[in-house]
Amino acid sequence: MRDASSHYGPEDAGSGQRGICVHCLKGPTQEGHDGCLGTLPAPVMNACCGHGKARLAYIQYWAEDGTGGKRISGDEAIREQARLKKGSQ
Q: How far apart are CA 62 and CA 89, in angstroms?
């Protein structure tokens, strides 16, 4: 059994994953990305899976890549994360 203090929950969303996600039970990548997302392709700057709460999920894009620093969140971000993960496999 894992120590709950090492789990990364929704209240930590957006701060760079440091522990095990309470939703997928995966640890962060070496770069600190959410374990279930891995490293998403450019122009993604950073993203959060929401750790079990879709309303906390987001993707933020680099401004200089033509997206203007756009940020999407919630269910839209979850759908886009799934599409990006599928395309990078």
A: 22
Q: Give strand pairing partners of 73.
A: 58
Cα–Cα nearest to 56, from 22, 85, 13, 18:
13
- Can you tell me the distance from the alpha carbon of 71 to that of 89, in angstroms, rounded to the nearest whole number? 23
Reading the chain (89 residues) residue by residue, the pLDDT tens digits are: 344 444 444 454 445 566 788 888 998 888 888 889 998 998 888 899 998 899 999 999 988 766 678 999 999 999 999 999 988 66
Contacts of 28 (CB under 8 A, 6+ apart): 8, 16, 17, 18, 19, 34, 35
Contacts of 81 (CB under 8 A, 6+ apart): 37, 40, 47, 49, 57, 59
Q: What is the DSSP letter of 60?
A: E
